[in-house]
Design brief:
heterodimer; A: alpha/beta; Rossmann fold; Alpha-Beta Plaits; 2 domains; six-stranded mixed beta sheet; five-stranded antiparallel beta sheet; 12 helices; 32% helix; B: mainly alpha; 10 helices
Chain lengths: 319, 245
C-alpha cells in the first residue's frame, strides 16, 4: 500500500460470460477520505467493490487494498474491511444481539454503543426477519463498523431509509471518517454523494467517466442548456442563424422538432432569434440542468434523445 | 467457542432449535415412518428379512434414514437458502475464515444426526425393542462415516443448487427413491431383479447395508462399507472445496 492510498486499482477487468462488466478501470481511494462511486445500474460499481473486497476474482488488473491483493490475500484483508453489501441478509431467526456475537471478533467495539448510536437498542432481542428495511440497513452498518475496520465499503448505504434515518446514517459516516476511517461509498443518490464524499468517481458501462471533488464535477458538467421548440418546416436560414449564435454547441432537427444545445447565453440569443423569425413557437421549452441532471447526462441517462432511436439531422453548431 | 467456526456452530445450533421444518423432517419423519412400517410386518423372524424380526430390521435401517434426511433435504435447503439470500456473502465479506462455514455445517450436521438417531432409538426401544449389535465396531465405523458422507453430500448439493426451492425439489427427489429402495422400503429379497440392481449402488443402500448387516448379524457387508468410505472421502473433499467462503 502506498502511504497515501488505501485502495489502488489499475486496469481492472471483469466479465460474466461474454458480458464485460468492468473494463480497464483505474481507481484510487486516498487515506482518510470518503470516496463515492456513482453510476447507473449495470455500471459495474458493485462488481468493482466486490473485487476490492476479494469476493470476486478479477479477470485482469492490479489491485492493492490496505497493502493486500484481494484476489490472493482475502483472508488477511477481509478482517480489516467493514462491508455493508447491497444484496445480503442474515438468517431469519437470528436476533440482533446474536448477530453482534456472531460477527464480533477480538477487535470488536462495544456492540451496545453501536446499537444505541443507530437506534437499535430496543430491537436487540428482535429476530432479523421482523426488522423493517431501514432497521436492517442500520444493523448492517453496525456490523460493518463492529470490528474497527480501516476501510469501510458501503454499497447503497441508505436504500430503504426514511429521510430522518438517512441523516442519522450520514452523521455516523462523517463521524467514522472524522475518526480516521477511510470510506468507499457506492450510491445512486447524488445528494448523498455530495453530502458525504470528498471525491466522486462516475462510472458507466464498466469505465470511469470522470472523477473529482463534487464541486469540480459541478463546474465541469453543469451549464449545458437545452432549448426545444417545434416549427413546421423551419426555414433553413433560421436554423443557420441559430447554429451561428454565440454559445450554441449543436442544433438538431427531428421533423418539426428543433433542439438547440449550448451554454446559458443561448437562452437569450435563441429567444431573440425566434422573436425575429415570428411566429414564436407555442411549445418553446428551456432546460437548465442541476448537478444531478448534469451527472445523469454524463451517465447517458437523463436525456432521452441521446438514447433515442429517432432519425435526427445535425444542422450545425460551434463551441 | 470464540473462533469463527465456533461462533458459527453455536449460532447454527441455536437457529436450528427455532426452525420447525428441521425438527419435523429430520426428527419426526423417520420416527413416525419407522413406527408405521415396523408394525406392518410383525415381529416374527421372516426369510424376506434375512430371518430376523422385521421390526428390528427397520429399527436398524432407520438410523440411516435420519442421516439421509439430514444430508439430502435439511442441509441443501438450508445452504441454498443462505446463498440465495446473500448470507454466505455476508459471512465471506465479514472475514470469516475460508473453511469455517464448511466445518460448522459438518459439525452441526453430525450433531443433528446423532441427536435424531438417539431419539429414534429411544422411541423404538419401548415399542419394538432395540436389536442387539452383533458386530459393534463395523457399525461404529459405518454410522459416523455414513453421516460424514451424507452431510458432505448435503453441503455439496446446497452449494450447487441455485435456490432453496430447487434444493428442496432435488433433495426430495433424491431422498424418497433412496429411502424406499435403500432403507425404509421393502427388503431387497422381495424386490424384482431390476429394482434390486437399481437400488444396490445407491449411496443410502450402501450405508444401510454397512450398518444393518453387521448390526443384525447378517454379514460383514465389507463391500458396502468400502463404498461408504470412498463416498465419505470424495464427498467431503469436493464439498469442502465448494463450501469455502
Amino acid at each position: 500500500m502506498s502511504e497515501t492510498q488505501v485502495v489502488t486499482v489499475r486496469g481492472l477487468r471483469k466479465s460474466y460470460g461474454t458480458r464485460v462488466v468492468v473494463d480497464d478501470l483505474d481507481l484510487d481511494v486516498p487515506v482518510g477520505q470518503i470516496v463515492g462511486l456513482i453510476g447507473a445500474n449495470g455500471a459495474g460499481k458493485t462488481t468493482t467493490v466486490e473485487c476490492i473486497q476479494g469476493l470476486r476474482k478479477p479477470d485482469s488488473g492490479r489491485l492493492s487494498v490496505l497493502g493486500f491483493d484481494p484476489a490472493t490475500q482475502a483472508a488477511q484483508l477481509r478482517p480489516l474491511v467493514g462491508s455493508q453489501l447491497q444484496q445480503s441478509a442474515l438468517p431469519d431467526r437470528l436476533r440482533v444481539g446474536e448477530a453482534l456475537e456472531l460477527f464480533g471478533t477480538s477487535r470488536a467495539r462495544d456492540g451496545g454503543e453501536l446499537l444505541e448510536q443507530f437506534g437499535l437498542t430496543a430491537r436487540r432481542r428482535s429476530v432479523f426477519s421482523s426488522l423493517s428495511g431501514g432497521e436492517r440497513q442500520r444493523l448492517f452498518l453496525v456490523l460493518a463498523l463492529l470490528n474497527r475496520p480501516r476501510l469501510v465499503i458501503l454499497d447503497e448505504l441508505t436504500q430503504g431509509l426514511d429521510p430522518a434515518a438517512r441523516r442519522n446514517v450520514w452523521a455516523a459516516v462523517r463521524q467514522l471518517n472524522d475518526e480516521g476511517t477511510t470510506v468507499l461509498l457506492v450510491t445512486h443518490e447524488m445528494d448523498e454523494a455530495e453530502a458525504l464524499c470528498g471525491r466522486v468517481v462516475v462510472m458507466r458501462a464498466g469505465h470511469v467517466l470522470d472523477a473529482g471533488a463534487p464541486a469540480e464535477l459541478v463546474e465541469r458538467h453543469s451549464g449545458a442548456v437545452v432549448i426545444r421548440f417545434s416549427r413546421p418546416d423551419p426555414p433553413a436560414a433560421l436554423l443557420d442563424e441559430i447554429s451561428r449564435l454565440d454559445g450554441v454547441q449543436a442544433v438538431t432537427r427531428t421533423g418539426a422538432r428543433v433542439t438547440v444545445r449550448g451554454d446559458r447565453r443561448i437562452v437569450a440569443y435563441v429567444g431573440a432569434a425566434l422573436v425575429r423569425w415570428e411566429p414564436v413557437p407555442a411549445d418553446l421549452s428551456v432546460w437548465l440542468p442541476s448537478l444531478e441532471d448534469a451527472l445523469l447526462g454524463l451517465l447517458g441517462q437523463s436525456d432521452g434523445e441521446q438514447a433515442g432511436t429517432e432519425t435526427r439531422e445535425l444542422i450545425g453548431g460551434r463551441r | 467457542m470464540s473462533t469463527a467456526a465456533g461462533r458459527l456452530i453455536r449460532t447454527e445450533l441455536r437457529l436450528m432449535t427455532r426452525d420447525p421444518l428441521v425438527l419435523t423432517f429430520v426428527f419426526a419423519f423417520p420416527v413416525v415412518t419407522m413406527l408405521i412400517i415396523g408394525g406392518a410386518f410383525g415381529t416374527a423372524p421372516d426369510p424376506a428379512f434375512g430371518n430376523v424380526n422385521p421390526a428390528h430390521w427397520y429399527v436398524a435401517s432407520y438410523l440411516t434414514v435420519v442421516i439421509a434426511a439430514t444430508g439430502l433435504v435439511m442441509l441443501p435447503v438450508h445452504l441454498a437458502s443462505y446463498r440465495e439470500r446473500g448470507v454466505l456473502r455476508r459471512f465471506a465479506a465479514a472475514g470469516f475464515p475460508r473453511w469455517s462455514f464448511a466445518i460448522a455445517q459438518l459439525v452441526v450436521g453430525l450433531l443433528t444426526t446423532a441427536v435424531a438417531c438417539a431419539l429414534l432409538l429411544a422411541v423404538a426401544a419401548p415399542v419394538y425393542g432395540v436389536p442387539a449389535v452383533h458386530d459393534a465396531w463395523r457399525v461404529a465405523v459405518a454410522l459416523p462415516l455414513g453421516a460424514v458422507a451424507f452431510v458432505s453430500l448435503g453441503v455439496l448439493l446446497g452449494s450447487l443448487l441455485p435456490s432453496a426451492r430447487s434444493a428442496q425439489a432435488v433433495g426430495l427427489l433424491l431422498f424418497f427413491p433412496s429411502f424406499l429402495l435403500g432403507a425404509g422400503g421393502p427388503p431387497p429379497h422381495v424386490m424384482g431383479s431390476v429394482v434390486r440392481q437399481v437400488a444396490g449402488p445407491l449411496p443410502l443402500t450402501l450405508l444401510t447395508n454397512a450398518v444393518r448387516a453387521p448390526w443384525l448379524g447378517l454379514g460383514p457387508a465389507t463391500g458396502s462399507l468400502i463404498g461408504v468410505v470412498v463416498l465419505a472421502v470424495a464427498a467431503t473433499a469436493v464439498a469442502a472445496r465448494r463450501a469455502a467462503l
